[in-house]
Design a protein that fits this description.
By secondary structure, the chain is of the alpha+beta class. Helix content is about 40%, strand content about 20%. The protein folds into 2 domains: about 110 residues, Orthogonal Bundle (Arc Repressor Mutant, subunit A), CATH 1.10.10.10; about 170 residues, 2-Layer Sandwich (Beta-Lactamase), CATH 3.30.450. Helix 1 crosses helix 3 and helix 4 crosses helix 8.
């Protein structure tokens, strides 16, 4: 699902620090449902060449701010201030000022209706700038090919908590009307093709644990509003190999997406297309879905080699 402009945000990543001067932004955890799926590896090394760095005392406030950032990135759920206070081990007001500074600089953000913390767009822009020279360019080639075949906007997304995060897109040329890409923006999981693909391995119990007791938000009259129906939709994705969003998030927009899997078969990301409903009629859906699935399988195969 794509949208020209969206203010709905939510993002989360999985960060592993090994204590050796390196921070890695990793993919989904093994052995269970995906908790996040950034696929960039970001190495942070000391910049003082030829000089020992262990003699230089750290800046305490900076170290604490980075600890907060890493804790939020490592969590599969929005992180409350109390949890950050326990982690850093200083008073609540000081932790709030540190977290608020990161929020003001957009390294952190507050999801809708919450004071908890998730990663913000600045953190993703930094990882994206690094990734454009590595995996970003690699994946974009597949998006170009998919758009050329189906004539619609294609995009690539990963799961971040309760949202799909769009990392790249490619728009067609020659179309008078097309769906705008939304790279760097976020969309809900329960009512988008990308979201349902990223949740494909979830059963009803896992969905209840993820979404909680609150009813699913209805964006259009076609939006899935119950977890039981969402579980059935996830089952169809497992059976069919792709998902469809038939105006469930944005009226008059239809989307098709398929899963990208890592070498172990876990769902790492999704690739899909968005089209005006008037152009993606039922007779075109099967052919379009076949092209999307083929693109997803080609990307997955490339990850193995």
């Amino acid at each position: 699902m794509s949208r020209a402009r969206s203010s709905r945000q939510g993002v989360r990543a999985k960060v592993c620090g090994d204590g050796g001067g390196e921070t890695r932004v990793a993919g989904p955890a093994r052995g269970g449902e995906s908790t996040g799926s950034a696929i960039l590896w970001v190495a942070l090394r000391p910049v003082m060449r030829g000089k020992p760095t262990h003699d230089t005392p750290p800046i305490q406030s900076l170290a604490r701010g980075l600890a907060i950032l890493e804790a939020v990135a490592a969590s599969s759920n929005p992180v409350p201030l109390k949890q950050l206070t326990d982690l850093v081990g200083i008073d609540r007001s000081s932790v709030f000022r540190l977290a608020n500074t990161l929020r003001q600089r957009r390294f952190l953000a507050n999801p809708e209706g919450s004071n908890d913390y998730i990663l913000g767009p600045t953190a993703w822009r930094l990882s994206r700038r690094y990734g454009r020279s590595v995996l970003g360019t690699f994946f974009h080639h597949f998006l170009q090919e998919l758009t050329a075949k189906v004539g619609e906007t294609s995009h690539f997304a990963v799961r971040e908590g309760g949202y799909a995060f769009f990392t790249d897109h490619h728009t067609p040329t020659g179309q008078v009307v097309s769906v705008s890409g939304q790279t760097g923006e976020f969309a809900p999981l329960h009512c988008t093709a990308h979201g349902k693909v990223l949740l494909a391995n979830y059963n009803l119990k896992a969905l209840k644990a993820l979404f909680g007791p609150a009813p699913l938000h209805a964006y259009t009259r076609n939006t899935i509003r119950s977890l039981t129906k969402l579980a059935r939709a996830c089952g169809r994705v497992r059976a069919d190999g792709f998902a469809i969003d038939d105006g469930e998030y944005i009226d008059e927009v239809m989307c098709v997406a398929a899963p990208i899997r890592d070498p172990e078969g876990e769902i790492l990301a999704s690739v899909g297309i968005s089209s005006p409903l008037t152009r993606l009629r039922r007779e075109r859906i099967n052919r379009t879905a076949a092209e999307v699935v083929a693109a997803a399988r080609a990307i997955s195969a490339s990850l193995v080699s």
